[in-house]
């Protein structure tokens, strides 16, 4: 039995893992889907006081409260920032860290560090225009979704806390490197804001300095929300990581 902790990306909530949680549980594993403060069913808590540290604490809190060891921590998109922090601060509790089309930062980088300046400016301008300092979700079509999956995600997305966007993350590279890591690259269609990251994890210099040992890249021919568009394929990768 493995302990899976699943962490959604921006604008999402624990709801997005529904079709992944079921088969993992049927296979006999313990599965916890975290919903970050201010998002999903916790959207009523959205406020300018939410920071990157708030969300890191959300993930650590689940691991500690459930007394989990040998955790397979799967982090989607923005939550790559959180997974990296958890690997740095309590890596001894992790069996594997899975970056699901996620941010893989270098020390001192923020979520926004690898984004185009136009993207950064638009998101920050949107946040400044709201009393809760958040920015709205995009059309789920950018995640490669259409028809009912598109409508399902569109109904559930919520604005994302803006103070998580430019907050830098400092961490010890060697502590993170001791945790086995997999990067899942969602290629069809590739999300533009992940382009720098998908190149980074294939760069031998990055692997030598920040990523090895124990890392690999797996490609899935689906869009940025594989837990929705290709849950069976994602489950197969997660089970392989647990094994």
Q: Report the uncertain regions.
A: none
* Helix/strand class: alpha/beta
Shape: globular
Helix content: 25-40%
Would you give an account of this structure?
With 243 residues, the protein is α/β, with parallel strands linked by helices. The chain is 37% helix and 16% strand. The protein has a six-stranded parallel β-sheet with strand order 2-1-3-4-7-8, sandwiched between helices. Helix 3 links the parallel strand 3 (71-76) and strand 4. It is globular and about 45 Å long. It starts with a strand and ends with a helix. The mean pLDDT is 94.
Layout of strands and helices, then pairs:
Elements: E1 3-7, H1 18-26, E2 30-34, H2 52-65, E3 71-76, H3 80-90, E4 94-100, H4 117-128, E5 134-135, H5 147-156, E6 160-161, H6 173-177, E7 181-186, H7 195-200, H8 204-211, E8 215-220, H9 226-229, H10 231-242
Parallel strand pairs: 1-2, 1-3, 3-4, 4-7, 7-8
Antiparallel strand pairs: 5-6
Helix pairs in contact: 1-10, 2-3
List keywords for this structure.
single chain, 243 residues, alpha/beta, six-stranded parallel beta sheet, two-stranded antiparallel ribbon, 8 strands, 16% strand, globular
Short description:
The protein has 243 residues and is an alpha/beta fold.
């Amino acid at each position: 039995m493995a302990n899976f902790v699943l962490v959604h990306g921006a604008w999402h909530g624990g709801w997005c893992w529904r079709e992944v949680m079921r088969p993992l549980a049927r296979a006999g594993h313990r599965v916890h889907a975290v919903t970050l403060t201010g998002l999903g069913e916790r959207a009523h808590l959205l406020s300018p006081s939410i920071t990157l540290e708030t969300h890191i604490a959300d993930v650590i809190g689940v691991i500690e409260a459930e007394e989990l060891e040998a955790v397979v921590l799967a982090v989607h998109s923005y939550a790559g920032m959180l997974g990296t922090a958890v690997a740095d601060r309590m890596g001894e509790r992790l069996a594997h860290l899975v970056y699901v089309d996620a941010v893989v930062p270098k020390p001192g980088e923020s979520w926004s560090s690898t984004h185009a300046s136009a993207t950064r400016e638009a998101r920050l301008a949107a946040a400044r225009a709201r009393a809760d300092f958040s920015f709205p979700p995009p059309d789920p079509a950018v995640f490669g979704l259409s028809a009912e999956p598109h409508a399902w995600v569109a109904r559930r997305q919520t604005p994302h806390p803006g103070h998580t966007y430019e907050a830098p993350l400092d961490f010890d590279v060697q502590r993170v490197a001791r945790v086995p890591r997999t990067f899942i690259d969602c290629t069809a269609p590739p999300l533009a804001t992940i382009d720098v990251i998908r190149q980074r994890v294939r760069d031998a210099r990055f692997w030598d300095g920040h990523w090895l040992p124990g890392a690999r890249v797996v490609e899935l021919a689906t869009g940025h929300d594989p837990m929705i568009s290709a849950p069976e394929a994602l489950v197969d990768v997660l089970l392989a990581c647990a094994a």
